[in-house]
Amino acid sequence: MVVISGLIPVFVIVVLGVAARRFSLLSEAAAFGLNRLVANVALPALLILKIGTSDLRQSFSVVLVATTSGVLLATTALTLVVAAIWGLRAPQRGVLAQAAMRGNLVYVGFPVILATLGEAGLQQAAVTVAVLVPLMSLVAVSVLEACRGRGATINPRVALRIVVNPMVVSALGGLVLAAFAWQPWPWLRSTLGILSDFALPGALLALGAQLRLGNWRGVWKPALAASVIKLVVQPALAWWLLEMFGLSGLPLAVGVLLLAAPTAVVSYSVAADLGGDTDLAGAAVMLSTLAAVTTYVGWALLVR
Q: Whole-prediction pTM value?
């Protein structure tokens, strides 16, 4: 019951975001602006504070980072095989792989981990995400480009967007600061703390405001497959491998809950930029986010 009580507010805030958009409390422009503010200011502040002030000897686990990274790559390969067996069109293959691999680690994973594992879990999650976020971006773009017949090369413009993404910069910058045992000035710590307090509720509201029901005709089966792989297969594979490599307790729980996050909302815009099937991308985001209400409760109960 404690786990469920902790998770319910997370999804209630997402529903509030949906309602705010539905009843015009947030216009489309306002929802877009809220998302930009959260993604470019509040969440980077949270990452800098949580990662930069962490003790890497305690919060950085090579086994956790390597295993979760390997699971992301394995999930991508598995989904591409499924797409080939189904004979999906090129614009759908890359989108399917991205939807099954790329999770909403920060927008949904962080609030769930904070609610179920507390500050210690959130700090370890933040350090782990410093590696996973850029990896997911690179893999997603590479696969989408490859499925368009361009090989695994990445357009320089897209590569630059990945490198200068504020969350990627703040995550990697936080690792550098932590390596030097950084301690921010009191006023800076307080400022980052205020922004961090806004980051997670703001992210959940922005997520809810951006969810859209699109044209699901012809794409609901691959969207369902992507959701099952993302919400069930990926975290189960992570759990099995992490236990096999000797991890338990908090690191294992963090790894499983991070990879149990639903498909990232940003996967829709990336698919649109790179010529992917946007109907499939939108359906996968919506379906996995709705299903995560149930699957997250199950995973949180199992790993505690």
A: 0.88
